[in-house]
Amino acid sequence: MANITASFEKNHESNTSFELEHPNNFEKEEEFEKIENYNEELYSSLLESEYLDPYSDLFEDQRFAFVNNVKIDILSDGWDFSPLHFEGKNPNQFKLDFSKIDDFTFKMIIKFYTLYRIFSTTVYQSTHKASLSVLTVFVNFLSDNNIYKITNITMNDLNNYMRIYNNQLAAGTKEKKKHYLYEFFVFVEAVTGKEINEDILEYLETSDIRALKAQNLSNRTKTLPDEFGDTFKDLIYEKILEQIAFKQSNSKKFNYSTLMYCSQLYILNQCGIRPMESIILPRDCITLENLDRDDRTKNVYYLHYRSTKKSSNKYIYARTKIVPKVVEIIDFLRSLSNDKNYLFKNRDKDIHKLSEFFTKFCIIHADILNLINSNNQDCFYHNKTVQSLLDSYKHYENSSINKLMKNNKEIRNEDVISIPRLYQFRVFFATYSTDKGIHPVKVAMMMNQNTKEMIGYYNRPKQIEINKRENEKNIKIFESVINDEFIVHGPRAKSRTRQMRQAYKKAKENAVDKTNKNHEITKEAMKDVPMRLMNGGCCIKAGEGIDCTLDNVTDISMCANKICPNQHFFIFNLNFYYQQFKKEIDNYYKSLDSKLYRNAEKSLNNIKYYIKTKLEEEMDELKLHMDDNSINNLISKYSSLQFYKDNYEKIRGEMEQWKNKEIKL
Question: Fewer CB within 10 A of the end CB, N or C, for the chain?
């Protein structure tokens, strides 16, 4: 142990006790004496803990550890496992940096915790680096606030941390961070023998299911329009043939990188594999199977590829059917390389350059690909104005838009260019294949989705048609508000109604055809005040292209919990909120019966929230329509309102009863 202590003294001037409390202001010699005793206690406690004792044979001299035959120095702030990385994974993901952790004790505990994670799972888990990043920020927050004992952290401390560092995060990211902290706290409990505050562990273990569901729906990768997929396929194939012709004629115009990226994009379009899987295709990746010896037209080609979705160093091999054009391209590429293992020579280590090439290609050919002011902008990853691309700090964006403008003089700065992302080809392939009649199980097998839960995961059937129907409904709602058929409700109802009227007036004044034919005026007005349907209402924002996660007044969790100020509702949503109201009443009584008084109180608060913010406004409007005899016209469009007309007084009495209710224990 003496050599360990000497190393500590050499590298660290001040430390904390194993109880995670800083020593008082000792004289220097007295402080080092305390540190020496502390180091031995810390090391022994960690090494002999129930978590690390099973792996004692992987340590050497209590200072070094072996992971898959890679020797690391525990005292070093940089652990490099990159010799273990494999093709298709970024080697930087295998490097762990502890130098940013300010407090020495926190650093040592996190190091041993990270070792435990690696030993108990595998070094190939990408979450090791993510966990270290979260824990680094957390313990530095503790140090900055003079907190040096983890087992004494209060719920208030944790709330302050979450408020400062996690308040604006998406629900999924927030839940991951909570999970990393929870696992770390359980480890700390084991090595210290002291318990963490129970409320803290309960909070970290509880997920916001509604927010997660909202985010998952919002973040689902959308499929590309069939029109784009088909046009892109033909255009990129032309570029491949062009490069092949350049090579065969020994032209200086031949560029291997261009051929490589175009080929990878064509394969993604045709096969639906992941972007990195196209980069690391094996050299011998094509096989031919004859389904009928007497009929050569029944020959089937298969593309064999390495799946990059894994947490080990062993590849899972998969295969998918391909067309003869892909075979011809791959045969030519093989003739250009002597690499015995991989199809592409000088291949990239990640997808960044391929992604940049794809973006440049789409911008330069935006007119051919119908990406300028597209009618299907909701289907693309980005929609950027020409001016924003010109101003972009990314050279590949502004250089590409300049090239487009040079070849197309009619491009205006306010025009919008739609830009897809590579991963959308995977969704496009699944959706396109399913629509063509291929069974979802077979599609899943070709995409190496081997679990029951993943069957149909990437399929987005008739997404464009669904979007069109939703747009038509939004148009009708917009026009109903303009025509005073019903009222907009919600936190910003008056200002949104005013903005909708102003936008409609502006669109009508600028319209060539004043007859409102095919709702064209309304469509134009909705560019200034966009609407999006959702459960229980409609999201209405005062500007095109505003991303919820970038809005200072809202986030995905507020959206999920129906408290976003951009969310509005209408009288035809009355049935939705009344059912939510009744559901919370059932939850209230069930909680009381089970003596879960905290849950009962939560349900009662939700009941009062629905009454105050939703039902009262909708019932007030219902009464107005009943008084002026316009209710029957609304019922003809929204039949569910008949029940609320017939039971108006009864429902009002029910609302009044619950509005004043208190829990009686």
Answer: C
CA distance 463 to 191: 52
Question: In terms of C-beta density within 10 A (0-12 exposed, 13-18 middle, 19 or more buried), how is residue 407 classed?
Answer: exposed
DSSP 8-state assignment for residue 567: E
| pLDDT on residue 22 | 40
* DSSP secondary structure code for residue 314 in this structure: S
Q: List the one residue out of 615, 621, 624, 598 whose CA is nearest residue 659.
A: 615
Cα distance between residue 143 and residue 638, in whole Å: 59
Q: Which pairs from 37-45 meet CB under 8 Å and 24+ separation?
A: 39/4, 39/5, 39/8, 39/15, 40/1, 40/4, 40/5, 42/18, 42/105, 42/108, 43/1, 43/4, 45/18, 45/191, 45/192
User: Which amino acid makes up residue 231?
Assistant: T
Mean pLDDT value across residues 83-102: 83
pLDDT digits (tens, 9 = 90+) for 585-616: 998 998 888 888 888 888 899 999 999 999 99
Cα four-point dihedral sign 351, 352, 358, 359: positive
Give how far Cα 232 sits from Cα of 316, 361, 425, 469, Å.
30, 10, 11, 26
Neighbours of 637 (CB within 10 A): 12
Gap between the Cα atoms of 72 and 74, Å rounded: 6
Assess contact for 358 and 267: CB atoms under 8 A.
no
Which residues is 385 bridged to in the sheet?
Answer: 416
Cα-Cα end-to-end distance for the chain: 60
Predicted local distance difference test score (pLDDT) of residue 655: 95
**CA-CA distance, 631 to 572, in Å (whole number)?**
11
273's tokens: 């594999």
Give the whole-angstrom CA distance, residue 438 versus residue 447: 13
CA–CA distances in Å: residue 553 to residues 318, 356, 610: 46, 33, 21
pLDDT at 58: 84
Q: How confident is the model at residue 552 (pLDDT cuts 50, 70, 90)?
A: very low
> Is 70 exceeded by the pLDDT of residue 316?
yes
> In angstroms, how far is CA 337 from the centroid of its own chain?
38
pLDDT digits (tens, 9 = 90+) for 126-164: 788 889 999 999 999 999 988 887 877 888 888 888 888
Q: Are 174 and 219 in contact (CB under 8 A)?
A: no
Spatial separation of the C-alpha atoms in residues 533 and 545, rounded to whole Å? 16
Q: Give the whole-angstrom CA distance, residue 665 versus residue 659.
A: 18
For residues 477 and 485, give the distance between their C-alpha atoms in angstroms, rounded to a whole number.
Answer: 9
Paired tokens of 117: 């994670």
- Comparison of pLDDT for 88 and 135, the residue scoring more: 135
* Angle, CA 10 vertex, CA 4 and CA 11 arms, to 5°: 90
Specify the amino acid at residue 118.
I
Number of Cβ within 10 Å of residue 2's Cβ equals 8
**Predicted confidence band at 41 (pLDDT cuts at 50, 70, 90)?**
low
Highest mean pLDDT pick, 56-65, 426-435, 603-612: 603-612
Two structure tokens written together for 639: 């039949």
Angle in degrees, 0-180, between the axes of helices 324-335 and 226-248, rounded to the nearest 10: 30
Q: Which amino acid is at 394?
A: K
- Please answer whether residues 634 and 485 qualify as being in contact, where contact means their C-beta atoms are separated by less than 8 angstroms: yes
**Which one, of 123, 65, 95, lies nearest residue 313 by Cα?**
123
Single-letter code of the amino acid located at 1: M
